Amino acid sequence: MNGKKKIGVLALQGAFVEHMASLEKLGAEASPVRLPRDLENLDGLIIPGGESTTIAQLMLFYGFTKVLRKLSQDDFPIFGTCAGMILLAKSTLDLDAETIGAMDIKVRRNAFGRQGDSFEISLSVPALGEVPFPAVFIRAPVIVETEPGVEILASLPDGTPVAAKQKNLLVSAFHPELNSDLRFHAYFLDIASRGRIH
Ligand code: GLN
Question: Can you tell me the mean pLDDT for 167-195?
């Protein structure tokens, strides 16, 4: 696949505008995805942060859940950030809702409690190079279990994984769209430009 990459951003609820701006700064075409038919002709999809219970309900209502489960199994590139990571995880503690459930990770919602509601930390992300990544966490989840096949990309100083990749799927517990460091989005565009892995 050549030319400008076309990436959709699920625009049901949450921080989708900021993701679109980050993608556009990298020269990609960003389009809001409000209905399943908006998924046509995309090279990848970002599921933003927000409230996972609300997004899960809206995804079911608009008919996204099964479609995205199927697409993710067919190697369609998807990047889930914060609530988006929760929606991609195969298993979530404390969430009573049907989700996409495509990635072999277990996550815990709101893992930092009130004290750590929102914070920024410099994370070492070797896949992005030597310069640490300024990661903004907002009522963030963490990864509590991974299965073989999942590559951990970044962990907190105590060893808790907070970003990971499995084939076409990328997740971060934090919000890479909330600062000017575009390396996570560039990394996802790279996954998307390799096309579907067969
Ligand atoms: N706490 C939210 C949830 O569980 C996620 C927060 C976020 O996406 N910033 O859905």
Answer: 95
